TrEMBL record:
Key words of the record: ATP synthesis, Cell membrane, CF(0), Hydrogen ion transport, Ion transport, Membrane, Transmembrane, Transmembrane helix, Transport
Organism: Massilia suwonensis
CDD domains: ATP-synt_Fo_a_6
Protein name (database record): ATP synthase subunit a
Membrane-spanning residues: 46-64, 100-118, 148-167, 179-200, 220-239, 246-270
SUPFAM superfamilies: F1F0 ATP synthase subunit A (SSF81336)
Short name of one Pfam family: ATP-synt_A
Family that this chain belongs to: Belongs to the ATPase A chain family.
PANTHER family, A to Z: ATP SYNTHASE SUBUNIT A, CHLOROPLASTIC
Membrane topology: Multi-pass membrane protein
Compartments (UniProt record): Cell membrane; Membrane
Main localization, broad class: membrane
């Protein structure tokens, strides 16, 4: 069996399970203990989510800066179609002031789509780059939406907006009354409160889990397809090229569909905050 030396210690070539575990590991400050550990910070998720957020803002700023009243170019036309699509959806769903909600939904769509698109990068690109720079092979995951911490963080922001608009539209007293009185009347206040808290939590968790589940599954499939090439056979190489190409094409739909679904659910939840039970 071939061996390599890392920091003076002989190690064997990774098995398929070790390869997958390594690529699914995060660059973090400490080792995580248990399923929930609030001391852990995933630096890779923070870096790529912030980077894609800045890139998304830059793209929209460039589109606004270069917008003309004449015949639009392809870039301006694409952005205008996207803005019009979000605006039409927000008109249908949100019955109230949309001066902040529509731009927020557009931002969510662009941000999530860019983060999802990082899944198109070759799975071994960063491992090879780290080795070339002399950093060894640290854990690093490039897709923030394949990290549950990232998707729950975004959905937590949506929950905060839901609470904000609920209080803003109905007033603090009206919102509290609805929290305790809906849907079964004030005499069932304890049950109503529990039910409404569960509803808020379920919306937040389902929003984040849906995006995470789809992107994590897509990332795992890319890793499994990449392992076909490690068989060093004609079938393995052919399977990697054919399966990889087919899945990459299909994944384009998933990447933008999940961004659209996340945006639509954001609009639906904010629209519900404008309405009473």
């Amino acid at each position: 069996m071939a061996t390599t030396t890392v920091e003076g210690a002989a190690t064997h070539a990774p098995t398929a399970s070790e390869y997958i575990r390594h690529h699914l590991g995060h660059l973090s400050n400490v080792h995580q203990h248990g399923p929930v550990d609030f001391n852990v910070i995933h630096y890779d998720t923070l870096f790529w989510s912030i980077t894609m957020g800045v890139l998304g803002c830059l793209i929209m700023w460039m589109a606004a800066r270069k917008a003309t009243a004449g015949v639009p170019g392809r870039f301006q036309a694409a952005v205008e179609m996207l803005v019009e699509m979000v605006e039409n959806q927000s008109k249908t769903i949100v019955h109230g002031d949309r001066s902040f909600i529509a731009p927020a939904a557009l931002t969510v769509f662009v941000w999530v789509a860019l983060m999802n698109s990082l899944d198109f990068l070759p799975v071994d690109l960063f491992s090879a780059a780290f080795r070339a720079l002399g950093f060894g092979e640290p854990h690093h995951r490039v897709v923030p939406t394949a990290d549950l911490n990232g998707t729950i963080g975004i959905s937590l922001g949506v929950l905060i907006l839901m609470l904000y608009y609920g209080i803003k539209i109905k007033g603090l007293g009206g919102w509290l009354h609805e929290l305790f009185a809906a849907p079964f009347g004030i005499y069932m206040a304890p049950f109503n409160l529990l039910l409404n808290i569960i509803e808020y939590a379920a919306k937040m968790v389902s929003l984040g889990m849906r995006l995470f589940g789809n992107m994590f599954a897509g990332e795992l499939l890319f890793l499994l397809i990449a392992l076909l090439g490690s068989t060093a056979t004609v079938f393995g190489f052919a399977g990697q090229v054919i399966a990889g190409s087919i899945w990459a094409i299909f994944h384009i739909l998933i990447v933008f569909l999940q961004a659209f679904i996340f945006m639509m659910l954001t609009l639906v939840y904010l629209g519900q905050a404008h309405e009473g039970h």
